[in-house]
Design a protein that fits this description.
mainly beta; 5-stranded antiparallel β-sheet
């Protein structure tokens, strides 16, 4: 299920979060994620690797890239949390250079994610995006542009939003399901 803040609300860098339980000993865990324009994924407060500016830029009406991360070592038995911050990148660039503002794919940032956990007994647990995720557009990145950088307001930081036990304030609400971009999803 693809999610965003709302269909009409202009946003810069929405933040999504989901808490879930791991009930058994884990054999492996993979996170499959597409965050348009860009995403910063954290599980229990840690990035799965040291890459930035994920996923790669495409013509989103033709292809949409996703990434796969091995997150086995980031999960723990008991409570866990996923945190994702999205940026606009070329998916919703507002700069007039090269007419990006007229791109047919231009839209609010969106998130599609599936965490697949395989337990040692062979059973599986899937944690995927849906309306049971929380989202806020009131995060610290108040403006972002691939050309002009970003404006970051540290007073709006949501410290610990990507960790279990975080207490959401009134700015958080349920994510909504939206249609996916028309481009083919590829790795």
């Amino acid at each position: 299920v693809v999610m965003e803040v709302t269909n009409t609300e202009p946003v810069s860098a929405p933040i999504f979060r989901k808490e879930f339980e791991v009930k058994q000993e884990i054999e492996s865990a993979r996170a499959y994620i597409c965050g348009l324009g860009l995403f910063d994924l954290k599980i229990n407060g840690e990035n799965p690797d040291d890459t930035v500016l994920n996923p790669a830029h495409t013509q989103y009406n033709k292809t949409v890239m996703y990434r796969v991360f091995d997150v086995t070592n980031q999960l723990q038995q008991g409570s866990n949390a996923i945190g994702v911050e999205l940026g606009k990148s070329f998916y919703n660039e507002t700069v007039t250079t090269w007419n990006w503002q007229n791109a047919v794919w231009r839209d609010n940032p969106k998130l599609l994610m599936q965490l697949e956990i395989t337990y040692q007994d062979g059973s599986k647990q899937i944690v995927d995006t849906g309306t049971d995720w929380s989202v806020t557009s009131n995060g610290p990145t108040v403006f972002d542009s691939i050309y002009y950088g970003e404006t970051y307001d540290a007073r709006l930081e949501k410290t610990g939003f990507d960790q279990p036990g975080y207490k959401e304030d009134d700015s958080w609400h349920s994510a909504i399901n939206v249609d996916a971009p028309t481009g083919k999803l590829i790795f």
